[in-house]
């Protein structure tokens, strides 16, 4: 019997799905169409590849001939008779129609009457970022700047690992979730961890006023990402929670049963690795391929990016794809590395475009639901290609229904700094010249703030291509120009001087200054090469930012965009001539990464160590919360974010490494965890004044939410899991809720 989640409490379900992802090679062979040549095809082509990978894309006769020829050159030994049988079988069942197109996929229309509409209103948080526009804004004001200081813990949910001092256990073990609140039920994903092998990743439904479990689905695969997505269903289909897992699977769970959704793929699962890995790549990189942050839902489409891994070619492609929310069938794909015949393919030389994994969207996209425009921020290309590497480090505007490119702006040409564009695009209507303009705002690790008309792509704060510093090296890869917004200037630190070395402990300034002088440090401007054969270098920002995946929030009341940043330098010692100036890792071997060592990360160069502390010699504050006045195109305020507790009074204004996001409310409050000092804070949105803080069991490297409970109380909830690339050794499994007394 189906029990609704939108009423009475449902008893806890302990649901397992051991066979949900059992799409083995034998399974694919069993699904092959019957006919002459089937046995020969299965016997020969399953030796090196997943059958589903081979047959994922129909091809012309010439293309299949080329594929067979390539496989023989790579070592396939096949009898002439078998080869003829395989060729005939492929042409009979997997031949592209005239013009190169495969069989048409069903197109989602969104025209069905919704039996399960997505609830709206101030008491909901129905999507990552609060909605498709990633505004991270709540119209609630019960908690406001006058009374936020009275906030108290309401409840704490634990998913099962307990506290630990083992430190970060890797990307798939991080508890960075942003919960959803829909129809009076909270939904979260929880990770698995090597620290407790018997604990499975889960999707859990929680009563938002108490933290009690309503139901729990245990996944046979690790659940990857920082949250989940909700599809509201239609007249015949119940709502679904959509999420990615390890090894490139995409799953759907029925929210009315807590079980894999019927009719979606096979047993609620589709294999999203199929279609992006060529025959050459095969299964070799499946262990590094995942669907990343929460997918984007538009009408009846599930639109995803990809995280193929950060090695060099051959790798799976990081294409943006749309799948039907009912069936899981692919509807369209956009090639982030343009292929022959596509726009901007000529910016890639020769075969440099082949099997390149980068330019992928590993963070979160935005959707203009009314106009049907998708905004996708891409990362670096993981490639040594000589050109600008389109569409890496680019804001793409795509037609959400078809995947057609509408406009684009590359924000970093030929990225050798690992700066990406990970902050989610934020959509808002802003005032320009006395008129309301639909805008999309975006920043990135480089600390530059861009704003475009989201329909036309016209820059709203201008930008100019300016010359960038070059290295006197034969291996110089720095692109000659980069785009700089006209205003505001960088919102994160991009340079420091020797005089700005901090003096936080006796002997610190002298030691750091001596290190600077002995190594002949030269500070580079933004986009300067990170290393030199002539001298040691110090550059900003670092590969973790500036801003990162947490992204910003926006208050239309103030016209302010809020974002947290890190100010971490990158020190590189003098290197031998001809060593190169790039720093991208393009030669990662196939297979899973080695185990991550436990405990805190070792100190980096340009660090002062004393009394058991490792302190950056970089200028403070090391972390900040920044408010940008969008209309004035200037920074309204900036304040240190985070403390260095071990320093006592001297550490109160240092700022701290931080990663995660913030939200802003109509009550005039900005809520943020993010820092690695175990604090959850509230700031005055107008002034930046610290209004309240709470000490957590572990740091909250996540983005909070707020909602109105059924009891008439406004809650603020944050996941506090610790770890991550900037965290300390403390880990936890807590989801913590606060409310007024």
Question: What is shown here, in short?
Answer:
This protein has 741 residues and is mostly beta strands. It is built from 6 helices and 41 strands.
Tell me what the structure shows.
The protein has about 750 residues and is mostly beta strands. Helix content is about 10%, strand content about 30%. The chain is built from 6 helices and 41 strands. It has a 5-stranded mixed sheet with strand order 1-7-6-5-4, with no helix packed on it. Strands 2-35-36-37-38 form a 5-stranded mixed sheet, with no helix packed on it. Strands 8, 9, 10, 11 and 12 form a 5-stranded antiparallel sheet that branches. α4 (about 60-75) packs antiparallel against α5. Mean pLDDT is about 85; it is low at about 1-30 and about 100-115.
The main β sheet shows up as: 5 strands, mixed
What share of the residues lie within helices? under 10%
Share in β-strands: 25-35%
**Structural class by SSE content:** mainly beta
Mean pLDDT, to the nearest integer, reads: 87
Unreliably modeled segments: 1-28, 98-113
Tag the structure with descriptive keywords:
single chain; 741 residues; mainly beta; 5-stranded mixed sheet; 8% helix; 28% strand; disordered N terminus
List the topology elements.
Blueprint: E1 14-15, H1 25-30, H2 38-45, H3 51-55, H4 61-73, H5 80-93, E2 137-138, E3 152-158, E4 180-182, E5 185-190, E6 202-206, E7 213-218, E8 223-231, E9 240-245, E10 249-254, E11 259-260, E12 269-271, E13 296-298, E14 301-304, E15 320-324, E16 330-334, E17 366-368, E18 373-377, E19 394-399, E20 405-410, E21 426-432, E22 435-442, E23 450-453, E24 463-467, E25 481-485, H6 508-519, E26 522-523, E27 537-539, E28 552-555, E29 560-566, E30 570-572, E31 607-610, E32 613-616, E33 623-629, E34 634-640, E35 662-665, E36 669-672, E37 679-684, E38 690-695, E39 705-708, E40 714-722, E41 731-739
Helix pairs in contact: 4-5
């Amino acid at each position: 019997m189906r029990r609704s989640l939108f009423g009475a409490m449902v008893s806890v379900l302990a649901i397992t799905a051991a066979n949900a992802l059992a799409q083995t090679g034998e399974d694919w062979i069993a699904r092959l169409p019957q006919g002459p040549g089937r046995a020969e095809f299965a016997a020969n082509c399953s030796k090196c590849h997943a059958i589903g990978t081979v047959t994922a894309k129909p091809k012309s006769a010439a293309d299949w001939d080329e594929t067979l020829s390539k496989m023989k050159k790579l070592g396939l030994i096949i009898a002439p008779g078998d080869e003829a049988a395989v060729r005939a079988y492929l042409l009979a069942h997997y031949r592209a129609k005239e013009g190169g197109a495969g069989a048409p996929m069903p197109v989602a229309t969104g025209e069905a009457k919704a039996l399960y509409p997505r609830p709206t209103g101030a008491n909901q948080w129905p999507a990552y970022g609060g909605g498709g526009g990633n505004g991270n804004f709540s119209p609630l004001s019960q908690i406001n700047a006058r009374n936020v200081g009275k906030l108290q813990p309401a409840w704490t949910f634990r998913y099962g690992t307990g506290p630990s001092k083992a430190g970060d256990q890797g990307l798939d073990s991080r508890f960075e979730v942003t919960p959803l609140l829909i129809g009076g039920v909270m939904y979260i994903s929880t990770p698995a961890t090597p620290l407790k092998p018997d604990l499975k990743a889960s999707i859990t439904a929680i009563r938002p006023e108490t933290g009690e479990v309503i139901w729990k689905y245990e996944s046979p695969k690790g659940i990857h990402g920082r949250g989940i997505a909700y599809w509201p269903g239609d007249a015949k289909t119940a709502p679904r929670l959509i999420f990615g897992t390890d090894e490139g699977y995409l799953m759907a769970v029925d929210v009315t049963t807590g079980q894999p959704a019927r009719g979606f793929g096979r047993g609620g699962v589709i294999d999203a690795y199929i279609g992006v890995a060529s025959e050459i790549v095969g299964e070799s990189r499946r262990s590094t391929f995942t669907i990343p942050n929460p997918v984007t839902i538009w009408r009846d489409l599930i639109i995803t990016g990809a995280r193929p891994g950060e090695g060099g070619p051959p790798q799976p492609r990081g294409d943006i794809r749309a799948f039907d929310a009912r069936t899981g069938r692919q509807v369209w794909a956009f090639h982030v590395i343009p292929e022959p015949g596509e726009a901007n393919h000529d910016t890639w030389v020769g075969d440099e475009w082949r099997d390149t994994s980068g330019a992928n969207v590993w963070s979160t996209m935005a959707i203009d639901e009314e106009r049907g425009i998708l905004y996708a921020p891409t990362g670096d290309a993981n490639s040594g290609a000589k050109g600008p590497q389109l569409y890496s480090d680019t804001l793409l505007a795509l037609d959400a229904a078809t995947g057609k490119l509408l406009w684009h702006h590359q924000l970093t040409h030929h990225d050798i700094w690992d700066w990406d564009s990970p902050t989610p695009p934020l959509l808002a209507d802003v005032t320009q010249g006395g008129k309301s303009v639909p805008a999309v705002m975006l920043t990135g690790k480089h600390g530059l703030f861009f704003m475009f008309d989201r329909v036309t792509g016209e820059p709203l704060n201008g930008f100019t291509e300016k010359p960038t510093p070059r290295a006197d090296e034969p291996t110089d890869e720095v692109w000659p120009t980069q785009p700089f917004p006209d205003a505001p200037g960088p919102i994160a630190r991009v340079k420091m001087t020797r005089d700005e070395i901090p003096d936080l402990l006796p002997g610190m300034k002298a030691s750091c200054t001596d290190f600077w002088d002995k190594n002949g440090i030269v500070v580079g401007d933004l986009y300067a090469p990170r290393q030199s054969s002539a001298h040691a270098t110090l550059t900003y920002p670092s590969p973790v930012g500036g801003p990162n995946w947490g992204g910003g929030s926006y208050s239309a009341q103030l016209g302010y965009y809020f974002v947290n940043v890190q100010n971490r330098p990158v020190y590189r010692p003098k290197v031998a001539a001809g060593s190169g100036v790039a720093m991208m890792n393009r030669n990662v071997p196939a297979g899973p990464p080695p185990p991550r060592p436990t405990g805190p990360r070792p100190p980096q160069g340009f660090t002062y160590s004393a009394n058991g502390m490792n302190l950056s010699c970089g200028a403070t504050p090391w972390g900040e919360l920044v408010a940008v006045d969008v209309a004035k195109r200037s920074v309204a305020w900036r304040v240190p974010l985070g403390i260095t507790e071990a320093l006592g009074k001297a550490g109160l204004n240092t700022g701290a490494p931080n990663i995660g996001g913030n939200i802003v409310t109509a009550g005039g409050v900005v809520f943020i965890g993010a820092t690695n000092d175990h604090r959850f804070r509230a700031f005055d949105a107008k002034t930046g004044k610290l209004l309240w803080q709470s000490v957590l069991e572990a740091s909250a490297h996540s983005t909070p939410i707020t909602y109105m409970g059924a009891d008439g109380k406004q809650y603020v909830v944050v996941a506090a899991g610790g770890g991550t690339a900037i965290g300390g050794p403390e880990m936890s499994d807590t989801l913590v809720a606060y409310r007024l007394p």
